[in-house]
Amino acid sequence: MAQAKYTTHLGMVDILPDDVRKWQFLEKLIREEAHKFNFEEIRTPIMEQTELIVRGLGQLTDIVSKEIFSFSRGEDNYVLRPELTAPVVRSYVENHLDQRGGSQKLYYIGPMFRAERPQKGRQRQFHQFGLEVLGSNDAVADVEVIAFMIHIYNKIGITNTTLKLNSIGDPESRDKYKEALKAYLKPNFEKLSDLSKKRYDKNPLRILDSKEEEDQPFIKNSPVITDYLNEDSLAHYAKVKEYLTDLNIDFEEDPYLVRGMDYYTQTAFELISPDLGAQDALAGGGRYDLLVEEIGGQPTPAVGFAAGMERLLIACEELGIELGTEKKVDVYIVTLGDAARKWGLSQLPKLRERGISTTMDYMGRSMKAQMKDANRENAQFAIIVGENELNEGKYTFRNMKVSEESSLSFEEILKRMEN
Ligand code: HAM
Asked: What is the pLDDT along the chain (419 residues), one digit of tens a residue?
C-alpha cells in the first residue's frame, strides 16, 4: 500500500468505525450510569483561555510548563483543554450555576490535549469521562465520586484494580508539611534534579511526583503528609475511609500520592491497573476546595475525578473483554434493473420509520455482488427484487442467517420483521 501523504499529528489517532462501536457502547454506559447517580452532563468548549489553565492547574505543573497546546490570535490566548476540572469550574462561575440550588453534580465525556511523549496509554489527544461535584464539603460527595468511578470499571468487568488513597490536607496542614519536607530535602538539595530544585521553594509537594531518577532515593524516605494533617483534615479523611469501608470499596493508602495539578486539597485518589504497563493510572481525582475561589467565584468546596477512555479500552483488550456489538444491518434490499432499484430506494424510508435498519447497493453492482455485499454488511434479511417480483407484488424475503426464503408482499415482510 502506498504511504499516505497526509497523516495525523504525532500522538493523535483516528477512531475508525470498528472501534467507534466500542466507544459508543462505553459512552452509552457512562451516560446511563451517570443518570442513575443523578449527574447531569456539561459540555464546554474545546479551547479555553490560557490564563485559566495556568491559574487553575499551576504554573509549575508538567501540564502547564511543558504540555499545553496554545496559540494566540489577536489579543486572545487560546489553549486546547488539557483537562476539564478548571473549565467546568470556569463555567460554574461564569454561568452562576450555584443559583440552580443544591450541589451541582456534573459529568462530561470528551477529548483533551497534552503535548506529552506518546507511548502506550499516553496520547496527545485522548479522551476522558469524569464527574465534578461543586458545593459540597461532605465526605459523602468524595465517596460517591469514587463509587461511581469504581462502578463503571466493575460494570465492564475490569475488577483487578487498586484504589490508591491519600489526603493532602488543607492549606494549613500542607504548609506545615511543606516546611518539614523542605527541611528533610535541604541537606541533599544539590543532588536533586533541576526540576525539583525549581519546585523546592514554590511547590515542594510536586517533588514527590517527580519521575526523575536522581530524586527517587530522597522521595522514598521523605516525611509523609498524613503525619501533618490538622484535626479538620484528619476528620475528613477518616470519614472518607469510613464510608468507603461501609460500601466495601477496598483502598490502599499511599501517603506519597500528590497528583499532577496544584488545585487539590484533602482527598486525592487514583485507580491503578496492572494491565496497563508504565502508564498504569486508569483514573484519578480528588478534592479541590479552593479552585472556585481561585478562579473568581465564591468559596465553594468541590470534588471530582476523570478517567482515561483509551486506557480503559486497553485494559479491556488485555483482559479479553469485548465491548459493543459487531457490525450489522437488519435488511439489505437487493435489486435487479432500474425499476427494482427505484422501488428499493422508495421502500427504505418505510422500513426505517419502523425502526428497522436498512440499506441497498450504492454502486450499481450485479445481483451476485449485492448478495455478497449483504453478507459483508452482516445483513439479517435480504429483500430480493427483480422485474417479476415487481409485477407480482411479491418479493423474495431471505433470512440470511439460515438461508431460508419465502415469497411475500411488502406488508407481509413488514409483519415478519415486526415479530
Ligand atoms: P489526570 O490524572 O491528569 O486528572 O487525568 C485523569 C486520567 O486521564 C488519567 O488517570 C489517565 O487515565 C488519563 N490521561 C491523562 N493523560 C493522558 C494521556 N496523555 N493519554 C491518555 N490518557 C491520559 C485530571 O485530568 C483531573 N482533571 C481529574 C479530576 C477531576 N480531578 C478532580 N476532578
From this structure: 889 999 999 999 999 999 999 999 999 999 999 999 999 999 999 999 999 999 999 988 889 989 999 999 999 999 999 999 999 999 999 999 999 999 999 999 999 999 999 999 999 999 999 999 999 999 999 999 999 999 999 999 999 999 999 999 999 999 999 999 999 999 999 999 998 998 899 889 889 988 889 999 998 889 999 999 999 999 999 999 999 999 999 999 999 999 989 999 999 999 999 888 888 999 999 999 999 999 999 999 999 999 999 999 999 999 999 998 899 999 999 999 999 999 999 999 999 999 999 999 999 999 999 999 999 999 999 999 999 999 999 999 999 999 999 999 999 999 998 87
Cα 332-337-338 angle, rounded to 5 deg: 95
Cα 9 to averaged position of ligand 1 atoms, centre (Å): 21
Last residue of a domain, one of 318, 340, 358: 318
What is the number of structural domains in the chain?
2
Cα separation, 186 vs 235, in Å, equals 31
Cα distance from N-terminal residue to C-terminal residue, the chain: 46
**314 part of a folded domain:** yes
* Residue 73 Cα to ligand 1 middle (Å): 28
**Residue 305 C-alpha to ligand 1 middle, in angstroms?**
8
Pair (24, 53) in one structural domain: yes
Supply the residue whose CA is at minimum distance from atom 11 of ligand 1: 308
Nearest CA among 404, 52, 30, 62 for reference residue 259: 62
Domain co-membership, 296 together with 352: no
Site to substitute for ligand 1 among 61, 104, 112, most atoms within 8 A of C-beta: 112
Range of the domain at 79: 17-170+230-318
Distance from Cα 307 to the centre of ligand 1, integer Å? 6
- Same domain, residue pair 311 and 343: no
